[in-house]
């Protein structure tokens, strides 16, 4: 029966193989005869001769108008965008396969950052933060590297005024990893087996644009580029650029609909500090290869990774490459693709 389904294209051989592994005797045969998967970077799924023996580095990057253009975002394996005070957004940029010479501007920690970074088990770098948020990151098993505590690797640029001018050298930050935080991260998303297409391409619908509303002042957009083979980002109607003039983009864009609640904390302007609730489950939209597919996201606990599941109950796979995760509020945000 499974052979017929695979032949008809109803299921892939990879899916059938996962089912057969649970069958007594067959599972042992498959384990003995299946060649090991070639090495790949855990956060991108891109093949590599050998994965570098270093931890993942998550860094808090600013995204206010005064912070643009940023440095080093295109080198990140994964970038998470979240709503903070006043409706502006900030990023958690995760580096592992590539460590650029410089990144920034680096800003302060927020209450949802431990849930984003904890599954990586590595380093979380930032510039300042409320003590309870810092304590939560440490309690989640992360090694904290703080500019305001005098950690090496941070500097201030002369081209911008504080607090928008803190930059960092990723290699110097990674070099400070202690013995408990030097292990490479596990995969945060699933990628297809060799020869297979990502789920959005295999089972989704063609799409060339994503228009998102995260708040009244934050409406990023993404447009698929066949020429570059990636999604290109805009801030509103303006192309999003890095400091080197290159367009910011990603191989995949993963949109998670999330609850955002106001905490008791306030920023200097009196705005409540919002917290994105990143445990539980919700709707998702996954964009890869000029296609999108609807999915469900789930995350059991702070230290668990986000899992993406399709309508058929199978894992949703991403194209090998970089990924941006957009945390769009369920109540006030919106998502449109075309």
Kindly describe this structure.
With 338 residues, the protein is α+β, with helices and mostly antiparallel strands. It has three domains: 2-30, no CATH class; 57-181, YerB-like (YerB-like fold, 3-Layer(bba) Sandwich); 199-337, YerB-like (YerB-like fold). It contains seven helices and 20 strands. It has helices at 2-8, 13-20, 26-33, 113-117, 131-139, 170-174, 199-203; strands at 57-62, 78-83, 89-95, 123-126, 143-146, 154-156, 166-168, 205-206, 209-213, 220-225, 230-235, 238-239, 249-250, 252-266, 272-277, 280-288, 291-299, 307-309, 323-329, 334-337. The strands form three sheets. Strands 1, 2, 3, 4, 5, 8, 14, 15, 16, 17, 18 and 19 form a twelve-stranded mixed β-sheet that branches. Strands 9, 10, 11, 12, 13 and 20 form a six-stranded antiparallel β-sheet that branches. Strand 14 and strand 15 form a beta hairpin. The longest helix has 9 residues, at 131-139. Mean pLDDT is 93; it is low at 2-8.
């Amino acid at each position: 029966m499974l052979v017929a389904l695979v032949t008809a294209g109803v299921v892939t051989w990879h899916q059938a193989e996962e089912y057969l592994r649970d069958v007594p005797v067959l599972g042992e045969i498959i384990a003995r005869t299946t060649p090991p998967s070639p090495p790949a970077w855990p956060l991108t799924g891109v093949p590599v001769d050998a994965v570098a023996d270093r931890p993942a580095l998550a860094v808090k990057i600013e995204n206010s108008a005064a912070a643009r253009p940023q440095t080093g975002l295109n080198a990140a394996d994964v970038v998470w965008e979240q709503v903070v005070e006043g409706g502006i957004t900030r990023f958690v940029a995760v580096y592992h396969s590539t460590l650029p010479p410089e990144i920034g501007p680096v800003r302060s920690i927020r209450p949802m950052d431990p849930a984003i970074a904890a599954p990586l088990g590595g380093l979380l770098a930032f510039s300042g933060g409320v003590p309870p948020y810092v304590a939560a990151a440490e309690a989640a098993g992360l090694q904290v590297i703080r500019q305001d505590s005098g950690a090496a690797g941070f500097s201030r640029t002369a081209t911008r005024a504080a607090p928008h001018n803190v930059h960092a050298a990723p290699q110097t930050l990674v070099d400070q990893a202690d013995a408990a935080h030097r292990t490479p991260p596990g995969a945060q998303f699933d990628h297809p087996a060799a020869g297979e297409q990502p789920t959005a391409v295999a089972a989704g619908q063609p799409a060339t644009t994503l228009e998102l509303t995260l708040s009244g002042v934050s409406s990023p957009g993404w447009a698929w580029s066949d020429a570059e083979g990636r999604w290109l980002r805009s801030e509103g109607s303006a192309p999003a650029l890095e400091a080197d003039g290159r367009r910011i983009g990603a191989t995949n864009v993963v949109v998670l609909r999330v609850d955002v609640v106001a905490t008791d904390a306030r920023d200097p302007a009196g705005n409540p500090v919002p917290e994105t609730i990143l445990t539980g489950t919700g709707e998702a939209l996954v964009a890869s290869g000029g296609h999108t597919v609807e999915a469900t996201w789930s995350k059991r606990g702070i230290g668990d990774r986000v899992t993406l599941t399709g309508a058929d109950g199978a894992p949703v796979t991403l194209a090998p490459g970089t990924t941006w995760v957009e945390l769009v509020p369920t109540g006030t945000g919106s998502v449109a693709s075309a």
